[in-house]
Amino acid sequence: MDTAGLDILNQAGFWAMVALTVAGASIAIFPRNILYNVLGLALCMTAIAAIYVFLGSLFIALMQFLIYVGAICIAIVFAIMLSRPLHLEMPPRPASKVAMATAAAVLFFVAIVGVVLKTDWTPSAARVADSSLWSVEAIGRALLTRYELVFEVISLVLLVAIIGAVITAGLSRRLSS
Amino acid sequence: MNSLSTYLIISALLFSMGLMGILQRRNLIGMLISVELLLNAANLNFMAFNRFLAPDPVIGQIIALFVMGLAAAEAAIGLSIILALYRKMHSINIERAQRLKG
Amino acid sequence: MGALFHDPILLAIVLGTNLPFLSMAVILLFTRSNPKLSSQISVGAILVSAVSAIYLLAKLHCASPLQYQTLWFSSDKLLIAFGYYLDPLSLLMLTIVGVIACLVQIYSLGYMAGDPGYSRYYAFQSLFAWAMLNMVIAGSMLQLFIYWEMVGLASYFLIGFYYEKWSASQAGKKAFVMNRVGDVGFFLGLIWLVIGFGNLGIPELNHAAATQGLPQHVLTVAALLIFCGVIGKSAQFPLLTWLPDAMEGPTPVSALLHSATMVAAGVYMFSRIFPFFSASPDAMAVALAIGTITMLLSGTMAMVTYDLKQVWAYSTVSQLGMMVMALAAGGYFAGVFHLTTHAGFKALLFLCSGIFIHEFHTNDMRIIGKKGGRRLKIPMACIAVGALALSGVFPFSGFFSKEAILGVLAAQPNKIWLAAALLGAVMTAYYSFRLIFHLLFPKDGIEEKQHEEHGHSSHGHEEDHHGYIFWAMAIPVMILAGVSLVLGFVEHPIEHFLIGHIVEAHPVAHGAEHGGGEWLMIMGVSAGLLGIAVAWFEFGRKGASRKGFLSYFPAVWKLFDRRWFLDIFYRKSLDTFVYGGLTSLFTKNDRRVIDGGIDGICFFTEGSGRLFSFLQSGMLQYNLLMMVLAAGVAVLYLLF
């Protein structure tokens, strides 16, 4: 296979992933059935993980898949099961609200795209083209040396979040019952 | 290869869709899902910058990791709040949760 | 600080004027429970003041005006100085105030003995002395105004001294309010002056060249507004009714404040910036008319009252009117000299009356006469001296000052003022001697018999017991009587002292003062004697009716007795304008504007709260929507 063919394939794969991302996001936000939304989110996350591969980081792609699809989406599904019965029909959204939301989103999109296109992006001068820098080993080294404090803080935040979640959900159960 | 702008515009699109979701959904879980979209859009940005601009490609990946961690924490807290709210109000409709209405 | 101790003059000024304040503070803070100590502190302080005033007069009597001042505050081009200004006028007045305040405080040792508010009385006396002394030597009109108000405050305290008495507290309020009416004008005048002239320093105001540069209308308005202050403080028409009511205070207070010094403050202020006033002929004409009306009105009122103090109160108003007349007619020296002599003999009259009142516990001259007022020989003689001085009979001080005033008025082209002054002199003599004859020759003789045993024994007892009290009252009275006798003969030294530096402003008036001629003197004296003769005919001679010719005209009597219905007029106008008009306006203002305003603010707050609470819908998504929109717009704005 020649490089040009590989490139086209590459491009096709990339745009397919982009299409999947957008489709997943659409499914995540538009249908009124909450279960579809979660499935759309999972699809979107998976596609984004694939885009991360295109961006050169297999590790982050895996983490994305693991955390979002494997953890968050499952947690959301649990939340859905614990809350509202699915068979109850949700009333349709007010058109005005949808219109306003769309307008705001479009405005924001236009603004961001404007910023993106207007900015003169200059790559850093000291760019090292060394593939070893992209390895998992490099990430682990950085995490446990230079970014250790942040790493620890994040773990603390996660711990607090877990305890907080347990207390919020558990305490309110005790209060209401 | 695709340029930085492509990725940025994709992420902007994702962000706007998340925004649209968060602004129109009445289901709290739906809003949470939209928030996840927003975070992913941001993450995508980080990764794109990391790929094209950063001097050291480790930094962007680490930031993306942190964002994921925070997203997980946010999801945990958000979901527990939703559950607590549901138990109190027997609804997860955001439009009903307006006891602070002036 | 160092300069204070190296300059004996400055030390005397500062000590003399501020010790009374210190004594007030000490009395109010520490020694209230100890009346004797309080009175000693106060009398000690005022003695120092009197001595330093005399020292200053002796030291500076032939020096040029002395000025101490520091910049108080400055605003743009306006500089307000704070300081002392010592010229012959302020030195003279300082001495008058210091000496009379001192005598009155000594007198009060006797008069107020045993009063439950003894310490309070002395505290207020000290406050008054402090304010008055500082007012006299103030270097700028603003400073003068501040102490002027302090004087009014002290006056309010002292009039309402017997505050448990309804009429006394009412009188205090009346005096205060009426003074405020005048002071509002005064203050407006000062503001006008600041705007138009840009300086409030007294020497600057009196500088002829400075006021010449001002437009005439500015000058006239300023002078008229400031004259309002004179009207209020010196009880001129139409604000004259507070002074007779102010007699509700203790008699020494009446003597000090409401005859000799405080009410003279108005006249003093008039003469203080006399060159300024005289730069505006219109204002002077108004002042002349007001002085004349006041003099005649209050003279008639004095002719019908039986209250000892009321007579002297009306007489004070009348004499103040005369001083204003003299000043307004351009007779600077005549006015100030009459102020000086009047301070002496009116204090004398009040203090004598105080002795009678203290002895007989009544203000009614008929009862005092009946109970044997003439047996108190010293006060009787002294009151006669005072009355003679007031009537302008020859060797007494009033004669000289009245002659000076008549001389000034005779120099006026319009002789009606002179005629009015002569008529006033007749009335003055009449009511003075009406009082004297009532005391001397009571209608049915002295009730000797029925009070012989009881009255005499208690009397003697009192004499023994209160010997110190009696002499504390008698000695100041005798001093004042002596002053009234001799003061007239020092007219020319005082005139030289006062006029020496101000003569160039009014050569005409000055010339007229000397060229009065003999016929004026004769007319003046004969006016006094005529009044005395009428009084003798009606009250003194054996078998006199003792009613007064006015009793044949009940309507006139009533008119005079009710003070020309001025009070009723005020009451009515107060009811119609103030209560009916202004108060209802204010009430409406209160209801509509203020209440309505507050309601409106509440309503607005509530309404806007409602409005914004619509935004605060509790709808998370709308808040977020707004946020996103704002962020988007901001980004777009910054972008393009």
Helix-strand blueprint:
The complex is a heterotrimer of chains A (177), B (102) and C (640).
Chain A: H1 3-29, H2 34-54, H3 58-82, H4 95-118, H5 136-144, H6 148-176
Helix pairs in contact in A: 1-2, 2-3
Chain B: H1 4-24, H2 28-52, H3 57-89
Helix pairs in contact in B: 1-2, 2-3
Chain C: H1 2-6, H2 8-29, H3 35-60, E1 66-75, E2 78-86, H4 88-111, H5 118-136, H6 141-159, H7 166-196, H8 202-206, H9 208-212, H10 216-233, H11 242-245, H12 251-260, H13 264-272, H14 274-278, H15 281-302, H16 308-328, H17 332-360, H18 365-370, H19 377-391, H20 397-410, H21 416-440, H22 449-465, H23 467-486, H24 491-499, H25 507-514, H26 518-540, H27 554-561, H28 566-615, H29 620-639
Antiparallel strand pairs in C: 1-2
Beta strand % of chain C: under 5%
Enumerate the spans of chain C where pLDDT stays under 50 for 5 or more consecutive residues.
449-465, 501-516
Q: Which architecture name of chain B does CATH use?
A: Orthogonal Bundle
User: Count of DSSP E strands of chain B?
Assistant: 0
Please tally the helical runs of chain B, counting DSSP H or I stretches of 4 or more residues.
3
Q: On the 0-100 scale, what is the average pLDDT of chain C?
A: 76
Element-level helix/strand string of chain B: HHH
Work out the helicity level of chain B: over 70%
Radius of gyration of chain C: 29 Å
Uncertain segments of chain B are none
What structural class should be given to the helix and strand makeup of chain C? mainly alpha
Characterize the overall form of chain C.
globular
